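Folding Query — how this chain folds
Tokens — whole-number codes for backbone shape
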Amino acid sequence: MESLPPVMGRPPSSEFVFFDPQRHPLREITPMTQASIAGDLGKVQEALNFYLREHDPKLYKFDSVLTEAIQGKQSEIISYLLSAGVPLEKVHCYKATEVKSTAVYEVFLQNGWDINRPLDIYEPPALG
């Protein structure tokens, strides 16, 4: 710990943080996340369809929607998002192990998740 450089000042206040489209969700994503938390599959479908019609389809941006659906154990929404092409990432597997929902595991398995595959070169399988 002695080799770390000293902290120089405080981080900038929020008034100096600029909008970065790579880090901040589009208008459609926030309502989708809220609909995902509420378990409203119809609103999630409507918002995703609108997004895909109007924008360049970059489905990785819907990571937060999938994460909230996993947190809320919304298996129908998870299934819909994965079938629509939202990528299943390592963080989602970790979140699934935290919530301990067999319904979520079932959806993951139906969408090609290999429960026995290590998550990374240095990490065991999610249930390991």
